[in-house]
Write a structure and sequence with these properties.
The structure is a homotetramer. The first copy, chain A, is an alpha/beta fold. In chain A, about 35% of the residues lie in helices and about 20% in strands. The first copy, chain A, has 10 helices and 14 strands. Chains in contact: A-B, A-C, A-D, B-C, B-D, C-D. The interface between A and B is large, with 48 and 48 residues.
């Protein structure tokens, strides 16, 4: 960590600050320049509050050199983490496709779709039971009943299931869920993250619409700090000024995360784009960029889907995507 | 609501869609053009799911004409809402300043600051007990103890208190809190909003960093839909590409919200800017733009504050701001 | 085009507006609703100024249905445009890689790199002679001499060249340049676009950092309106809040543009990311998303490059990317 | 300037780099830490290319400590610059309002508006002759004739005039123009900036929609580097995800620029918001935030204006704004 001091910092101020920092176990190196004095802080700075330091009157700016995430950091854990779900592996050389409807709507619907996507190459079934909706007047999901129906689909197809949690109080409903999803809007719901750190289940952590890659990793760090290292990161588009797509898929996040962390990264082209027509090119792009998996919305009857119909593929369309993805995987 | 159909929509498709929409109690007006056919949907469209309609193959785009928020909409409730807190009024011609430290740190600290800001013109005491922090390794607040200390400060100064909730399970700890704050990161924590709709306390609802003004109003709508109309909106900066300020204060949100909703709007220049030096000009700007109040971080010893020291005013600085704000209020 | 009128629009106002619109050759269809009246405007609305209409007191909002770009619109020209450059084709099924240094620095440098990238699969040589730099104190390019050196490299390798123009006054220096590049910062330099509309050379039009896809197409429309239909669009990253990459590559722009326009689209992963390490995954992603070509910075000695060294590939790295791109092209 | 080296940098690499930097006249201070080695570079670093340094393999990141703009920097020129225009002063304690139509449309129009805004308190007349329009099919301004009409209005009212240049070739048409405006889209048209550096006229430099405050100052630096120090900066809104306003006025830019530069800053609330209803609150906010002036669109007949009618005030509305602005100025 580097602290740049103002030109007018007095010797006494500098000495006091140096003493205070050394009291926290850091080594301090001083460089005096024509316009600024620089303190290089060496040691474990992950627990130093940058903002506190910036608040000091004599300090002009502070720059972290090590990333503030430690457990999620590839620098300290060079090998890829591989997350196991019912015998399937995600991460490293292992690639999985999660597919299914936005919302679970009925037993018939979820079972049909589950069978279709399995046949087409998906290995994990997605489906929303608790649905975060911008409007209180929109369909909010089947909630506990939706989870029951997902479990029935799992029983009939053997596919592990992933579904979103919105409230830590619901955790016992998720006992048989295989992967618990934290949605984009809850990426910084720290109370929820702390609870998920205490369970051992794999967590699919979606990046928030306006969250930086570093904030995504800090949220992963919350879960790991609680004791749960089974985290799959998910890029699903960020908010920009462009309006032709619902969000802007930050495809660069895939190789950037690969460099920063050992955790696997999957991409959700359905929410990123908001339009079925864009899902296939974005799924192929994510695969080519090195993602460890995909999460794709598929619906047997998109026109009558209770939400997100506009971005859902039909099982036939999904089959084509799945085949091309497989062939791109072979190239890499 | 207007639905623009694709050029190749067949007569049969159009008739089926018209019938389906009429079955939902809407009147449908058809305009046929050279390139497109347009359906004008008249009636109560607040419960029609726009995305579902856009998902239909024959539909090119859908445009809402009435805003999707109804209870928060000034069109249906032209008079300003005035929120009462322990005899104080916020909204309409009434202006209040909320001030206090980012975090409650000790009894001495909160009582001292409370007395200072009251003397300087603040009418409501702010202070964080539960703190949402990006890093799990940063100070997380005194939690329940922090609320106790705020209540002690209230007892000694007579000021009502506002503090942030992060988990609906904590609601009974907030029984004597006067205004419950929903932080920016929880603006779309819909499970929390639903719970707050069931209580009767005033809610200070902060806009999320990447949330549109419409989404802010939809979140207010969640609370009102539950039965609680006591909502104060808060603009606190949005995330942009600019890095000289922590966030970008969206000052236009003040007059825009004034036009769209009857709910009062306060501005938090401390979090919007992140630097004490910017707080005074932004506080004056917000007042001039027509805000119904301000929320300002004040600390007796910013350099040693446990968080947000960089953006806290000293009591002396706050006194100056408070005086200038009063004089601008007289001009308006 | 749809104009939504305010509830309080009088019959007389509506009649006057209708008459005025009909005087411009439009058919007007009226739908009256409980809260709003809607005018559907049918006919050639591309010359109606939306903002002017929105300025009318009785009008609440205006929505275009047809896109405002006409000559670039795929709706009216369904077949892919194919741009020819010295016998090479870009667009439709034809894919080309443009590669070379950020800046032309010396004869030896540009000739060496040209030979390397040609051997590795590039078909067009890029190189900056006029360089737009944020700082007046940074290297501004070899200017006219740089173009001379590019022409020498063309002579020795047979590769057509693409280089950026910053000033219409320099057009005669570009007489033997094969593709004239308009940089991101000049995408809305309309005076320059008008001049380029008058020449017949292929134009590589880069999307501005904060420009929408629609604005990119409107800038293409400026060039076509002048008589030059030889336009290649280029996505090179947009400005967002994320700081780990220099810009955010908007990969969705590739399939979106494919739907909206007949013009070919190439992607520049070097400027989009700003880091050599990210160029390969983004180049593969762009190829998989359906781009018609790539533009990649290659330097024989990135460490000593006079600009953009951080994002340049070595010839060896470029060879690997070029091979993988070819294999992904086979999959599609 | 600080360069953070990678953990695996060899002693030989560090020595070579140190030597190379010392050869450029810099003093180099070395701090070795557990994970990183830090070089503190002391001396005149304004001509070191940050990107070149970042391109070196052994370098992890580079941080400037001094701002890269030197002539525009308040640190080296602590006193406010005051720009004189026909005897009027802008900057320091002097405040001026520029008002007039978006476009000059006719002699009658511009003379009438000029008289109205002068009577209402404006001191400088604005009006567009050359108009940058997104669409080639929209009205492009009266061009040279527009400047003639502005000069006639100047003659009749005595007001100095400000109007936009889009092409350095037009400079002789601007010989009698008092302030030359560089529009947002041309803020990084460096060829134009260089030409304006050679003339002595005051330049009103508007911030680009996606340009940082630092880039705005670097563009000012281009003009100063050419020899022209008469620069007025203008904040006119940046592009964000919010759609209720055309752009997002970055009100914080006013106090931030005040801290960074000695140049005066004016605010254009008309282009920032896009709606007449928002102009008054934003004009008051900008005044309260400390702007040195305002630029406001006024039209005698907004409904029939040839562009930007939606955001133009009537002379009556402008009179009210101008009065309130004056009273807020008294408070400050």
């Amino acid at each position: 960590m580097i602290a740049v001091l103002k030109q007018n910092a007095t010797n006494e101020q500098i000495e006091n600050l140096t003493e205070w920092l050394e009291g926290r176990g850091l080594n301090v190196h001083l460089s005096r320049g024509e316009f600024h004095t620089i303190l290089g802080l060496i040691g474990d700075t992950s627990k130093v509050d940058t903002e506190l330091l910036e608040g000091l009157e004599m300090v002009e700016s502070v720059k972290r050199i090590s990333e503030p995430f430690k457990n999620a950091n590839r620098q300290f854990h060079p090998d890829d983490s591989i997350i196991e779900v019912c015998g399937l592996k995600i991460g490293g050389p292992n690639f999985q496709i999660m597919a299914g409807p936005c919302s679970v709507e009925s037993e018939e619907q979820i079972i049909n779709i589950a069978k279709s996507v399995k046949a087409a190459g998906a290995s994990i079934l997605r489906g929303g039971a608790f649905k975060p909706r911008t409007s209180p007047y929109d369909f909010q999901g089947l909630r506990a009943d939706g989870i029951e129906l997902l479990l029935e689909a799992k029983k009939q197809t053997g596919m592990p299931i992933v579904t979103e949690i919105m409230n830590a109080n619901h955790l016992d409903l998720f006992e048989q869920v295989d992967i618990i999803q934290v949605g984009a809007r809850n990426m910084q719901n720290f109370e929820l993250l702390k609870e998920l750190g205490l369970c051992k289940k794999p967590i699919l952590l979606k990046r928030g619409l306006a969250n930086t890659i570093q904030e995504l990793l800090m949220s992963a760090e919350y879960i790991i700090a609680g004791g749960n290292r089974n985290i799959i990161l998910c890029e699903r588009g960020i908010r920009t000024f462009e309006t032709y797509s619902r969000n802007t898929l930050d495809i660069s996040a895939v190789p950037i995360l690969y460099g920063l962390t050992h955790l696997p990264v999957v991409v959700d082209p359905s929410h990123a784009s908001g339009f079925a027509r864009l899902v296939s090119p974005l799924a192929l792009a994510a695969t080519a960029a090195g993602a460890h998996g995909l999460m794709i919305e598929v619906h047997n009857d998109p026109v009558n889907a209770m939400c997100d119909g506009a971005q859902s593929l039909t099982p036939e369309e999904f089959t084509l995507v799945s085949q091309k993805v497989g062939r791109i995987r072979e190239v890499l």
